[in-house]
Specification:
Elements (H helix, E strand, L loop, with lengths): L6 H8 L17 H5 L4 E5 L4 H11 L11 E6 L7 H4 L2 H10 L3 E2 L3 H5 L4 E4 L7 H10 L4 E3 L7 H13 L4 E3 L7 H7 L6 E9 L8 H4 L2 H11 L3 E8 L3 E8 L4 E7 L7 E6 L2 E5 L6 H13 L6 H19 L5 E2 H8 L2
Helix pairs in contact: 7-8, 8-13, 9-11, 11-13
Length: about 350
């Protein structure tokens, strides 16, 4: 079977655009003229996640790293999930925290866009992301979207389609992609990767597909090591555990274990030609923030649109397998359905 996400097929199926423009890592780079007019003013949408606080502390703290070179969070729009209790209750406290670090609070996304050059879309709830992202994209601002990209695969595809059509740089990733050991494996320390097993918490939120809410972290580790090209998955589901087995086009096998009991931890094992490597531990958000700032400077996402969309297709396919009592599911079928 041909790679579901080979460049020509993927461009055609998503109707994003034509030629290499659609999923090139360089196509969305800001022009020299545009970059020359930008300062380091960053705005946040959504103060209902701890990520907003972590990023603000790193960029606006007493001794921000020189590598951030003047990039600073200057304004935030606090909302935010409207009905997920764990998110809603954070907003007042997190709003006060960022205000103490010099962040102006505004009352709309449009007001935010007038004050900043770059956007961190941090709303913990993926459902409003499509509307929020479209406002940013229409304004032409480079955009980082924290997990999940959206509340459905359909909305995720729509966001990337709009970004490509409007030539707006966009980047999304879990912070777990940038664990040092995962990057070591991805960058050739083990030679060719023969397979991988990863794990993370996979707590559920009834308003989202199962893995969009939290299992994304372990799935992102799996894709960091294995790369794109998964053609089929099967899922075993119990109340406390999920195990998803993916078969890649070249015959390699990668697995993700999502847990809802026991230790809240992230990691796995990569299997390579030169040996095996334990993946972990996770040490925090700064490695991801480094990549975000590099992205804002260059306009080039370090993760291709193609790979990000495949990750979300993988997770939606896992839900489809669950609905069908563990039947094998082709990613191609899931993606085609969500694209229409």
């Amino acid at each position: 079977m041909k790679n579901l996400f080979n460049r020509r097929r993927f461009i055609r199926d998503t109707s994003l655009t034509v030629g290499a423009i659609a999923f090139s890592n360089t196509v969305l780079a800001a022009s020299d003229k545009t970059k020359s007019t930008l300062s380091g003013r960053i705005g946040i949408i959504g103060l209902d996640t701890s990520h907003s606080i972590a990023f603000t502390k790193s960029l606006n703290g007493i001794n921000p790293s020189e590598k951030f070179n003047g990039f600073k969070i200057v304004a935030a729009y606090p909302l935010g999930s409207a009905d997920i209790e764990s998110s809603v209750k954070r907003i007042p406290g997190y709003t006060e925290e960022v205000k103490k670090m010099g962040v102006e609070i505004v009352n709309s996304i449009q007001a935010l866009l007038e004050k900043v050059d770059y956007i961190l879309l941090e709303t913990n709830d993926g459902r409003p992301h499509l509307d929020q992202a479209l406002q940013v994209i229409k304004a032409g601002k480079p955009l980082f979207i924290d997990k999940p990209v959206a509340g459905t695969l359909h909305d995720t595809i729509a966001i990337y389609k709009a970004a490509v059509e409007n030539h707006v740089p966009i980047f999304s990733s879990s912070s777990l992609r940038y664990m040092e050991t995962a990057q070591d494996a991805a960058n050739g320390k083990l030679g060719k990767i023969l397979g991988a097993d990863t794990y993370s918490p996979a707590t559920l939120e009834k308003t989202h597909p199962d893995f969009f809410w939290y299992g994304i972290h372990g799935v992102e580790i799996l894709y960091t090591v294995m790369g794109s090209g998964c053609k089929q998955i099967t899922r075993t589901n119990t109340d406390n555990t999920d195990i998803v087995v993916g078969v890649w086009n070249d015959g390699r096998v990668g697995t993700f274990r999502g847990t809802r009991t026991g230790t809240h931890d992230y990691g796995g094992t990569a299997y390579g030609e030169k040996g095996n490597l334990v993946l972990g531990p996770f040490k925090g958000y700064d490695n991801l923030l480094d990549k975000i700032i590099e992205f804002f400077k260059s306009g080039i996402s370090p993760v291709s649109n193609e790979e990000t969309l495949e990750i979300y297709t993988f997770m939606e396919a896992a839900d489809e397998s669950k609905r069908k009592n563990g039947m094998p599911i082709l990613l191609e079928d899931v993606f085609r359905k969500a694209s229409h």
